[in-house]
């Protein structure tokens, strides 16, 4: 039985979502970029509208005319690209040097962050990046600008796969990781419905608020009735465009209508993002956020360092990975996922609970703690439930997950629970022991060395066969 | 009642009941395939009741409808495929071993002189049947490609017509279903959910063609288990790519669904005299009527129904009001084995006496609640 069902039942009883995390497990930077995008149903690799900007300023809404004229389309994208690159690269303006693999690397002082409504928006950005990466245009500067924009988008989409990263903050993912409602996973993908469960209007139950809120979309796919309106507006623009030279006024009028339409779709989403960020920022941050922020700064620094090479080299952007690169990437993702699990569980008792419930970890009151330089240390823990972890198992105290492990030496019955004796071999330092009377958790989660060191593979694949050229 | 008019009334057949109906399409059948365990939905399918219309103008309106721009994209891609006498599509078929020894013959059924609407579909269905007979008998003039094939099927006691994107015949007499979709294949990858839906659709066509062949006393095996999904290659629509897919699972599933699309005799008997609400009645009256029918027929709400069924929002509200755990999804129901409602789950967590089948869940719940409270207390000031 997962803790999630119990929390969902609590949410059902209260009529509003309940917290599933006691601390905030993602950093929210002081001035992130907010971004809302709308998809063009005709072309999944383009967008109908994109709005972005920092929270302190009103958003800039760019609207695409949906033209089939490649030159005009490139110029429309260039306007977006110019502003986005300027904003996104501004994080790199103030930088400091850090040691990275034996060399100096410039990293931003303030980490870059983009707040988006959901994962679907991120996938749309990835698709736009994929398309613009191959963009060709007679104007070399314009082509280079589009490739630069594509590089940023592709990097964001790739970096966002890294567990625990904080450069891209997808609000639905963030809220689903910190709150539990009585909605299914499918319904929880709607940012408006999710927020309605978290902060329903007074005297309204979360369910009713969410049903009303479902009428809105946070993008990139508009609601069906909005898609109909968009199609009608695009048809009007198309018709005005076919009118010939004398129809520039009509084209402009149709464009204004289209801009107003997308501005109307964007505004409620923008307000919602600001509201979510403002509220969630007040939750105390988890202790291990600093490591992940540092990792993001290094990743951003590396991205900016390689940016010029990628933009200038037509083969700089690779879409298909070699077997070696795929293996290294998989290793990186798995290590980061494991590390994130440990960090979150150490930082937050609610994230550790599933381990205790599944019987992999034990939680109880420390009855005694003896440290001896020759015999090692011994802790006796009294648990309220019978200990299901077998004797001889190696566990780590959640207060010192980077320290040495504790072996279960004995398990004795004590009332309805158990008295568990854990021992640690000879100790060189006295730190990393719980104190008598405190409640302690011993679990298999710890900072193992292998979590910090990547896979080492030979530079060339060791197998003899090669794919056909 | 004529044989062609489906019986939307659940009891004895009625000549006029004013219940809104729609024609069966492959997308309607594919959607129904997702909730075959719901008696209410099966009855609506068998009676071809247009639930979208019945829920229209109420707070449970499904809010469905395809994006017109996406439809435009699909049409444009089809036009590109048809360019130069299907040159690109035929080339792709050759590459995939659907070898044509002689010059390709294309049966263009959309070009047949036929009236619009149902009569036109009847004409094309008959033409499709004749072309299928030629392919199954390996006639010298059998077509390589049937464009605009229409397959007739008897569903729920009435004829229904289904338009397939294309059927391709190989020189060895095998028939392959072709389904054109406008989502792209890029860097060798495509959206797996959309691909799955396209395969389900192609599987349904294959099952329908097999049923048609059996009706004509021809071997059903003529329809190959492998079908083709045609997609645009890369970010532009200009080039196409063919994905060969094994459709055997989808064909079996579709065949089962076609059997299910007949009124459930037991349910019809049980609900004799009851009917779906008529079109034109007030919103409140319609919802009351539908709710009553749901009570009597029985429903099986799952969150996935929201994606496929026009009645899902009403079902969800009823399930929520009843406090059913199923609103969280099947996973939650499986985890809290023996416990059906939120209220009971909370009672058990608080220490209520469990029944025999609730015992294991109750043990875990009381423990979870205790640990949760302790964790909250520990975090407090």
How is the secondary structure organized here?
The complex is a heterodimer of chains A (469) and B (381).
Chain A: H1 3-14, E1 18-19, E2 33-40, E3 43-54, E4 60-63, H2 70-89, E5 95-100, E6 103-108, E7 114-116, H3 119-133, H4 140-159, E8 168-170, H5 171-178, E9 179-180, H6 191-198, H7 206-213, H8 224-241, H9 248-281, H10 289-312, H11 323-347, H12 349-357, E10 362-372, E11 376-383, E12 394-397, E13 406-414, E14 417-424, E15 439-443
Parallel strand pairs in A: 2-7, 7-8
Antiparallel strand pairs in A: 1-9, 2-3, 3-4, 5-6, 10-11, 10-15, 11-14, 12-13, 12-15, 13-14
Helix pairs in contact in A: 2-4, 3-4, 4-10, 6-7, 8-9, 11-12
Chain B: H1 26-32, H2 39-46, H3 51-55, H4 68-95, E1 106-108, H5 118-136, E2 145-147, E3 150-155, E4 158-163, E5 166-169, E6 175-180, H6 192-215, E7 226-232, E8 240-246, H7 248-260, H8 265-270, H9 283-297, H10 305-308, H11 312-321, H12 330-335, H13 342-349, H14 359-379
Parallel strand pairs in B: 1-2, 6-7
Antiparallel strand pairs in B: 2-5, 3-4, 5-6, 7-8
What key attributes describe this structure?
heterodimer; A: 469 residues; alpha+beta; Elongation Factor Tu (Ef-tu), domain 3; 2 domains; 12 helices; B: alpha/beta; 3 domains; 6-stranded mixed beta sheet; two-stranded antiparallel ribbon; 11% strand
Write up this protein.
The complex is a heterodimer of chains A (469) and B (381). In chain A, strand 3 (43-54) and strand 4 (60-63) form a beta hairpin. Chain A has helices spanning 3-14, 70-89, 119-133, 140-159, 171-178, 191-198, 206-213, 224-241, 248-281, 289-312, 323-347, 349-357; strands at residues 18-19, 33-40, 43-54, 60-63, 95-100, 103-108, 114-116, 168-170, 179-180, 362-372, 376-383, 394-397, 406-414, 417-424, 439-443. With 469 residues, chain A is of the alpha+beta class. Chain A has two domains: 3-316, no CATH class; 349-449, Elongation Factor Tu (Ef-tu), domain 3 (Beta Barrel), CATH 2.40.30. In chain A, helix 3 (119-133) packs antiparallel against helix 4 and helix 8 (224-241) runs antiparallel to helix 9 (248-281). Chain A is built from twelve helices and 15 strands. A six-stranded antiparallel beta barrel of chain A has the order 10-11-14-13-12-15. Chain A has a five-stranded mixed sheet with strand order 4-3-2-7-8, with helices on both faces. With 381 residues, chain B is α/β, with parallel strands linked by helices. Chain B folds into three domains: 26-65 and 261-322, no CATH class; 71-182 and 221-244, no CATH class; 330-379, no CATH class. Chain B is built from 14 helices and eight strands. Chain B has helices spanning 26-32, 39-46, 51-55, 68-95, 118-136, 192-215, 248-260, 265-270, 283-297, 305-308, 312-321, 330-335, 342-349, 359-379, and strands at residues 106-108, 145-147, 150-155, 158-163, 166-169, 175-180, 226-232, 240-246. In chain B, the strands form two sheets. Chain B has a six-stranded mixed sheet with strand order 1-2-5-6-7-8. In chain B, helix 1 packs across helix 6, helix 6 crosses helix 7 and helix 13 (342-349) crosses helix 14 (359-379). Chain B is globular and about 80 Å long. Chain B starts with 25 loop residues before the first helix and ends with a helix. Mean pLDDT of chain B is 83; it is low at 1-15. Classes of the chains: A alpha+beta (469), B alpha/beta (381). The interface between A and B is large, with 54 and 50 residues.
């Amino acid at each position: 039985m997962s803790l999630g069902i119990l929390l969902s039942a609590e949410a059902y009883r209260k009529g509003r979502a309940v917290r599933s995390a006691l601390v905030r497990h993602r950093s929210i930077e002081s001035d992130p970029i907010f971004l809302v995008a709308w998809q063009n149903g005709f072309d999944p690799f383009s967008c109908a509208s994109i709005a972005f900007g920092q929270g302190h300023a009103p958003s800039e809404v760019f609207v695409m005319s949906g033209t089939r004229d490649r030159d005009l389309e490139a110029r429309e994208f260039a306007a977006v690209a110019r502003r986005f690159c300027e904003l996104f690269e501004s994080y790199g303006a103030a930088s400091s040097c850090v040691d990275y693999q034996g060399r100096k690397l410039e990293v931003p002082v303030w980490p870059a962050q983009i707040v988006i409504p959901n994962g679907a928006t991120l996938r749309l950005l990835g698709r736009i990046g994929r398309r613009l990466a191959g963009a060709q245009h007679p104007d070399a500067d314009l082509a280079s600008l589009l490739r630069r924009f594509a590089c940023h988008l592709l990097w964001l989409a790739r970096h966002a796969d890294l567990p625990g990263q904080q450069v891209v903050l997808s609000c639905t993912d963030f809220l689903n990781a910190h709150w539990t409602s009585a909605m299914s996973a499918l319904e929880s993908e709607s940012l408006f419905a999710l927020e309605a469960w978290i902060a329903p209007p007074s005297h309204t139950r979360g369910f009713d608020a969410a049903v009303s809120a479902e009428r809105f979309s946070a993008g990139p796919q508009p609601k069906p009735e909005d898609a109909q309106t968009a199609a009608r507006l695009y048809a009007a623009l198309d018709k005005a465009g076919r009118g010939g030279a004398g129809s520039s006024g009509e084209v402009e009028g149709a464009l204004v209508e289209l801009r107003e339409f997308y501005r109307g779709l964007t505004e409620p989403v923008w307000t919602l993002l600001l509201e979510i960020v403002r509220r969630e920022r007040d939750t105390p941050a988890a202790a291990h956020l600093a490591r992940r922020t540092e990792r993001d700064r290094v990743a951003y620094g590396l991205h900016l360092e390689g940016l010029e090479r990628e933009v200038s080299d037509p083969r700089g952007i690779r879409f298909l990975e070699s077997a070696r690169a795929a293996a290294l990437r998989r290793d990186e993702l798995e290590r980061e996922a494991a590390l994130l699990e440990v960090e979150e569980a150490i930082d937050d008792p609610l994230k550790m609970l599933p381990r205790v419930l599944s019987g992999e970890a034990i939680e109880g009151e420390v009855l005694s703690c003896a440290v001896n330089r020759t015999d090692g240390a011994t802790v006796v823990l009294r648990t309220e439930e019978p200990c299901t972890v077998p004797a001889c198992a190696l566990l780590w105290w959640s207060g010192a997950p980077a320290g040495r492990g504790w072996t279960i030496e004995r398990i004795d019955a004590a009332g309805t629970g158990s008295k568990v004796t854990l021992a640690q071999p000879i100790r060189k330092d006295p730190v990393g022991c719980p104190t008598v009377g405190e409640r302690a958790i011993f679990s298999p989660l710890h900072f193992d060395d292998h979590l910090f060191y990547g896979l080492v593979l030979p530079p060339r694949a060791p197998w003899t066969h090669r794919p056909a050229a | 009642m004529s044989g062609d008019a489906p019986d939307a009334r659940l009891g004895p057949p009625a000549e006029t009941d004013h219940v809104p109906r729609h024609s069966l399409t492959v997308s309607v059948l594919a959607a129904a395939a997702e909730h075959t365990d719901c008696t209410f939905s099966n009855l609506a399918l068998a009676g071809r009741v247009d639930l979208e219309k019945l829920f229209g103008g109420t707070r449970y309106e499904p809010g469905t409808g395809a994006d017109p721009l996406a439809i435009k994209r699909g049409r444009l891609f089809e036009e590109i495929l048809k360019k130069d006498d299907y040159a690109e599509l035929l080339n792709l078929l050759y590459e995939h071993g659907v070898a044509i020894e002689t010059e390709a013959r294309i049966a263009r059924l959309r070009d047949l002189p036929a009236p619009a609407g149902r009569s036109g579909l009847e004409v094309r269905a008959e033409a499709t049947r004749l072309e299928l007979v030629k392919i199954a008998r390996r006639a010298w003039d059998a077509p390589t490609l049937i464009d605009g094939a229409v397959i007739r099927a008897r569903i729920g006691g009435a004829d229904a017509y289904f338009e397939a994107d294309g059927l391709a015949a190989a020189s060895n007499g095998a028939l392959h279903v072709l389904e054109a979709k406008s989502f792209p294949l890029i860097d060798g990858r495509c959206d797996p959910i959309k691909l799955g839906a396209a395969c389900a659709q192609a599987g349904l066509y294959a099952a329908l063609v097999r049923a048609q062949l059996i009706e004509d006393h021809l071997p059903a095996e003529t329809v190959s288990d492998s079908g083709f999904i045609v997609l645009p290659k890369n970010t532009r629509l200009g080039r196409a790519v063919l994905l060969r897919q094994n459709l055997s699972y989808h064909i079996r599933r579709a065949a089962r669904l076609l059997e299910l699309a007949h009124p459930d005799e037991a349910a019809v008997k049980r609900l004799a005299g009851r009917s779906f609400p008529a079109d034109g009645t007030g919103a409140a009256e319609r919802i009351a009527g539908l709710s009553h029918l749901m009570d009597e027929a029985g429903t099986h709400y799952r969150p996935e129904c929201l994606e496929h069924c026009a009645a899902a929002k009403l079902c969800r509200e009823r399930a929520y009001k009843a406090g059913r755990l199923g609103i969280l999804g099947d996973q939650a129901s499986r985890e809290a084995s023996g416990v059906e409602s939120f209220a009971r789950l909370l009672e058990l967590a608080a220490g209520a006496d469990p029944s025999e089948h609730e015992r294991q869940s109750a043990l875990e719940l009381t423990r979870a609640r205790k640990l949760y409270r302790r964790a909250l207390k520990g975090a407090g000031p």
